[in-house]
């Protein structure tokens, strides 16, 4: 069941979920992608940096507009240190979170390159949310909300600031992305 949208029906006719969406997390190493995934799917956080947390993807179900939407969220598992990930990573994805670290200017400067890569592998109207993570590190902030909002507008992305550490806006960022995907598919229903 990788990729694409599926209507789920069990043999009894009851449904586990109405839709399944594959989402991908992209962005430089150590911006907090794996911890955003952990926070969203398991409500956990880890301090130690590892190139991979040992999973390629995890599931989380949301209810949006009364519909049960199962998300399958893919982590880069360390590939991103080569500033690119394999094309299969993007296959069948319906939305992306492009993550940078609010305390690392480099990670923000690399966002346009990441967006170009996403566009090379996915339809041009793929919903993407730009995520400025580590909003808890207020004193170390290097990217202003204004700068990030301007880039988001230029690249036609939504923008949110999150903290995987204190769980601020994490679920909201995923809900924003999934809502955009859902609205694109079901324009008449919302
Ligand atoms: P990834 O390489 O993008 O997957 O980043 P990780 O999730 O492995 O996080 C890299 C480092 O940043 C780890 O030490 C995390 O504990 C830390 N980190 C991740 N998210 C946050 C956050 O929201 N706030 C703070 N203060 N640290 C974070
Ligand atoms: Mg990681």
Automatic annotation (TrEMBL):
Keyword Lipoprotein (UniProt): yes
KW Nucleotide-binding (keyword) present: yes
Organism, scientific name: Rotaria sordida
Family (UniProt): Belongs to the small GTPase superfamily. Rab family.
GO CC, one annotated term: membrane
UniProt main location, coarse: membrane
Recorded topology in the membrane: Lipid-anchor
Keyword annotations: GTP-binding, Lipoprotein, Membrane, Nucleotide-binding, Prenylation
Molecular functions (GO terms): GTP binding; GTPase activity
Cell compartment(s), UniProt: Membrane
Annotated protein name in UniProt: Uncharacterized protein
């Amino acid at each position: 069941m990788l990729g694409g949208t599926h209507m789920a029906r069990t043999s009894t006719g009851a449904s586990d979920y109405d839709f399944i969406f594959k989402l991908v997390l992209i962005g430089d190493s150590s911006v907090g992608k794996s911890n955003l995934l952990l926070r969203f799917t398991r409500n956990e956080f880890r301090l130690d940096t590892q190139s991979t947390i040992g999973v390629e993807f995890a599931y989380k179900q949301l209810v949006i507009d009364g519909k049960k939407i199962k998300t399958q969220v893919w982590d880069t598992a360390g590939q991103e240190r080569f500033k690119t990930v394999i094309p299969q990573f993007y296959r069948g994805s319906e939305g992306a979170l492009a993550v940078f670290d609010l305390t690392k200017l480099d990670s923000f400067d690399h966002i346009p390159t990441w967006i170009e890569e996403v566009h090379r592998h996915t339809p041009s109207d793929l919903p993407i949310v730009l995520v400025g993570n580590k909003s808890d590190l207020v004193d170390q902030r290097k990217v202003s909300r204004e700068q990030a909002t301007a880039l988001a507008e230029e690249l036609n992305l939504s923008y949110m600031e999150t903290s995987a550490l204190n769980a601020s806006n994490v679920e909201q960022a995923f809900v924003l992305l999934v809502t955009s995907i859902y609205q694109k598919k079901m324009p008449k229903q919302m």
